[in-house]
Each structure stands twice: as C-alpha cells, then as structure tokens.
Amino acid sequence: MNGADVKNAGDWRGRHLGTRTVAYDDTKPILYALAVGARAADLDLVFERDLRVLPTFALTLAQWAPDVLGSAGAFDVTTAVHGTQRLAVRRPLPASGEITMDARVAEVWDKGRAAVFDVAVESDHFEATWSLFAPGRGAFGGERGPSAATRPEAVPDHTTQVATQPNQAALYRLLGDRHHLHIDPDAAKVAGMPRPIMHGLCTLAAVTLPLAAATGAHPADLVELEGRFAAPVFPGDRLTLAAWTGGGDGARFEAAVDGTTVLSAGRVRFEEVP
Predict the structure, then answer these.
(1) Are residues 162 and 263 in the same domain?
(2) Mean pLDDT of 58-70
(3) C-alpha distances in angstroms, 117 versus 35, 109, 148?
(4) Is the pLDDT of residue 4 over 50?
C-alpha cells in the first residue's frame, strides 16, 4: 500500500511496516557510545573487553521503520518532524550479533491541523516508538490522543551542564541517519536553520549518561526512556539538564539551551541494583 491509496491518515493504524534483521559487530556500539558522549575512561562502554551496550543504541538499529512509513507516502517527509521518542528495554543488547525487528503503525492521533503517527518497533531486546508529527494530515475524525506530561512544579533535585561537541552530529550520522540537515550547511539553510543541527536521538541519548550518574545508576542499566523534542540543538551547544528523581516510576527531566527548552516531558528509569 502507498500514500496514493490512503486518503484518511487514520487508515494507516495497524499497518505492518515489515520485518528486518540487522547485524553488527562491536565497532558500532563503541562508536555509538563515543558519539553520545561516553569518555575514553568509560572502558565498559568503549573497550571491547567486557563491553556493555548502551540500550539507546537500539534506536539506530530500528531507524529504518519510520523511514519506511514516510517512503510509503503516509505523510510529507519534507514537513513531518520527530515529535517524541520512547524506548522500553526487555533485555541487554549483545556486543555483536543480529537483531530481528518487527514494525507497525501502532496508532494515529488526530491533532486537528496535523496527525501524529506512532511507529512501534519490537524485538526480543526492546520496543521503541517514534511519534511523528505530520502537518496537514489531521482532521480525519480520530481521537486526539494523550497530552505531554507537564513540568514538575518542584525545584529540580539535580541540575547539571551537558556539553555537546562541534563534531558530534558528524560522528553520530555514521550510525545510519545521514540526513543532510545534520552535516550540510546548505541543507540546513533550506530547512530554516542557521547551520546543521544535532540529531534529536543523539541529544536524548547524551542526557542519559548524566541522568544515570545523578541517580547512582550505570547508563547501560537503562530500562525506560521517553522525551519530546521541543527545539533544535546545535553541535557545540551546552545543555542545562534538570532532573526530578523523587518519583516511583523513574526520574523526570528537561533540558534547555540558553533558557530555551529543547527536551521536555522527559522520563527515564534505570534498573535498580539490589
């Protein structure tokens, strides 16, 4: 089925997007860890001996699924944006191997002037959901869907600075997302940006490292993560990360650059160490 066959965005709900097996060796998770801010001293993230794979690496393996939906014509790929991301970890990823994934359109929400497509990718190791905001595809009579979580009113329990690197987007794109917006100044200008921007998934993964430190956890022990992409981040930006760690369902967080929120409605949970 392609976009020409479907006039109602809601008709995409439940559509199977395919099954794919992706193979990798230990080079990829090491490169990934470095691209999202791991240090050379973080040996169990960047050294093949006793390597632990960051769970957010799964998002690079599953990126094909939202791309399939866009290519099928469900929405205009030039105007659709990645709104939110969720990840639930079922078991640790191996340092190398093959991961078989199955993808579907889990839900389509009607926001009036836009539709939101939830693309779910499942494997034995994780379930990841992309929420894609598609202008011009709403008003089809569907449910509006849940609202984003609001910022906690309490003072944050932890506030820290997260420095991104000038070459970070150039490094992260080697994991598979080679959209020109993240490397080509001309492509960025066409998109209305003054220069190339960071990948949202890179920014989201990068804040999980200091969030793990704030909660006394190891970043590879991540079990749940979600966040909304509120504004672009540019390589070299310094993020102010605020976290509220008192909740029983994980820590809440937000990130801002010079007072502008760039990640909102964040929630993260790490496996509790006995």
Answers:
(1) yes
(2) 97
(3) 28, 7, 15
(4) no
